[in-house]
Specification:
By secondary structure, the protein is an alpha/beta fold. The protein has 11 helices and 10 strands. The strands form 2 sheets. The chain has a 7-stranded mixed β-sheet with strand order 1-2-3-4-5-7-10, sandwiched between helices. The protein has a 3-stranded mixed β-sheet with strand order 6-8-9.
Length: about 270
C-alpha cells in the first residue's frame, strides 16, 4: 500500500488473523472465536503482520482486535494449550515471539471485548493503549491455576496500574471489570457497550493524523528500556513457570479450571 492510497482498504484474510489497512490504520483481527486462544503460531502471525505494517508508509497506527465473544483467553489448557511437546520448550519459543511485539515501532490500540485472561491479558498489556467497556473483564488468574504469570506481565501490569494493584490482581486472580480497570489505568478509555472496536479505530485514526516521525520518536522515548525489561522478565517468568508446572498444585489448578470447580491447593 502506498502513502497516497490511505483512503483505500487493503485486506489480507487468514484462518487465524485478518489484516486490513484503511485510512492510515492497520486492523489486526484474531479469528479464533469465541475465546481466541493463542499459541505460538497465532502470536507469530500477529508479530509478523505488525512488523510488515511497520514498513508500510500507508499505515501509521494499529488496532489489535478479535472476532467473537472474548478478546483472548490465553492458552487453551483444555486441549493442552498447543503444548504437544515439552511445555517449557514451546513456551520459550512463544515468549520469544511475544517479546518481538515490544519491538514494533507503530503505536497499537487494543480493543478488548469480553474477557482478557492470563496470557490474553498479557497480550492486551503489550499494546500502547486499551479500549474496553463496562462489561469487559481482565483476569490474571495464574495463582488460581497454580503457576507464575507470563507474557511479560511482571513488567507491563505494574507499569500500567502500579505495584499494589498489580500484586492484588496477580496474587488473588480476581476478576477486574471495565469500570475498575479504567479507574486503575489498565483501560485507557471506556466505550459504550460493544463499541470498543469503533472507539479504538477512531483513536488510532487520531494517532495516524499526527506527524508520523514525531509519533514514533516520542513513543520510542516513552518506551525506552521496556523491551530489555520485558525480555529479562520473560526469562524469569519461564523459569518459575517450569518449576511450578511440575507441582501437584498446578495440576489441581488446571483441572479445577477445566472442571469449573474451586481448586483445593495443598502447597505441594
Amino acid at each position: 500500500m502506498t502513502a497516497d492510497a490511505d483512503t483505500q482498504a487493503t485486506t489480507l484474510q487468514g484462518a487465524d488473523l485478518s489484516v486490513t489497512v484503511q485510512d492510515g490504520v492497520g486492523l489486526l483481527e484474531m479469528r479464533r472465536p469465541p475465546a481466541n486462544y493463542f499459541d505460538e503460531a497465532l502470536i507469530g502471525q500477529i508479530v509478523d503482520a505488525a512488523r510488515a505494517l511497520d514498513d508500510d508508509p500507508g499505515c501509521r497506527a494499529l488496532v489489535l482486535a478479535s472476532e467473537g465473544k472474548h478478546f483472548c483467553a490465553g492458552a487453551n489448557f483444555g486441549d493442552g494449550g498447543g503444548f504437544t511437546e515439552d511445555r517449557v520448550a514451546v513456551s520459550e519459543r512463544l515468549y520469544r515471539r511475544a517479546a518481538e511485539l515490544f519491538e514494533i515501532r507503530t503505536p497499537i490500540v487494543a480493543a478488548v471485548q469480553g474477557a482478557a485472561v492470563g496470557g490474553g491479558l498479557g497480550l492486551a498489556c503489550a499494546a500502547d493503549f486499551r479500549v474496553a467497556d463496562v462489561n469487559s473483564r481482565f483476569v490474571a488468574n495464574f495463582a488460581l491455576l497454580g503457576f507464575h504469570q507470563g507474557f511479560g506481565l511482571s513488567v507491563t501490569l505494574p507499569e500500567l496500574v502500579g505495584r499494589q494493584v498489580a500484586a492484588d490482581m496477580l496474587l488473588t486472580g480476581r476478576v477486574v471489570r471495565g469500570e475498575e480497570a479504567h479507574r486503575t489505568g489498565l483501560v485507557d478509555r471506556l466505550s459504550a457497550p460493544g463499541g470498543q472496536r469503533a472507539a479504538a479505530v477512531e483513536w488510532a485514526r487520531s494517532l495516524a493524523a499526527a506527524a508520523p516521525l514525531a509519533v514514533r520518536s516520542i513513543r520510542a522515548t516513552l518506551r525506552s528500556g521496556l523491551l530489555g525489561r520485558v525480555r529479562e522478565a520473560l526469562e524469569h517468568e519461564l523459569s518459575e513457570q517450569a518449576r511450578l508446572w511440575a507441582t501437584r498444585d498446578c495440576a489441581e489448578g488446571i483441572a479445577a479450571n477445566l472442571e469449573r470447580r474451586t481448586p483445593v491447593f495443598r502447597g505441594e
